[in-house]
Amino acid sequence: MNTYTKLIGKYKNNEKCYVIGAGPSLHKLIYHPLFPDIQNNVIIVVNSAILAMKWEKGEQNNRYFVSDDFIVTKWSYWRSVLSSKCNKVIRSSWEKHKDLIKDFDKFFIFEPRKTPENIIDYNERGLAYASSVLSAIDLALQMGCKKIYLLGVDHYTDGFRSHFWQYWTYSKWPKGPLSPITQQKESFNHNIQAFEALKGFADYLGAEIYNCSKDSKVEVYKKIDFKDSL
Fold first, then answer.
1. What's the structural domain count of the chain?
2. What is the CATH number of the domain that holds 27?
3. Which residue has the higher pLDDT, 8 or 129?
4. What sections of 25-154 are H helices per DSSP?
5. Rounded Cα gap, residues 118 and 114, in angstroms
6. For the chain, which terminus, N or C, has the lower number of CB atoms within 10 Å?
7. pLDDT score recorded for residue 185
8. Are 205 and 130 contacting, i.e. CB atoms less than 8 angstroms apart?
9. What is the pairing mode between strands 87-91 and 108-110?
10. 3-class DSSP assignment, residue 131
11. The overall pTM is greater than 0.85
């Protein structure tokens, strides 16, 4: 099994990392003139945030896709995941479906932490679970990144919009089984304590996490303007 533990400590030279969620605020950020400059750093995209990247070409070394939920394979953007030059990191529960996934043996597999998601055992192997963005932040910390910037990690809705691509023309939306808004909001609320636990892990490792979404409901991390992250 190609375990995620091979990635632990990969970045030890104070590398910066961008963790990119698919929240509404990402819509404006992807058109920011400085957005392409993040490509010079470690980048971890979560689920449909892959649509914000142009990774069909280039080196995969500092690029990562992370997902907890096998349901992403039922979305049309899954084709973008498979065609992207990046490292794919997925939860061990996907193994029962491995015959359905092309090149499954090239994916990195993680076990969810055995402790509850609002408690981090700093010596435990595994990634925070229940939300892919939690797993992504945990991965960035374990890989050794010391400054982590969150983009599109909003945990709010703008009217009916909970994802950045919902600002696009409907014909350009990815197609798939989107959870009802009520269920998404329950997930948002459930994750808050886990974000707090990950801040404690960051403090323990001497790392810093910044949220580049000023309206984000994730208040535990210091908020900064995106341009200041660069």
1. 1
2. 3.90.1480
3. 8
4. 26-29, 78-83, 132-143
5. 11
6. N
7. 73
8. no
9. parallel
10. coil
11. yes
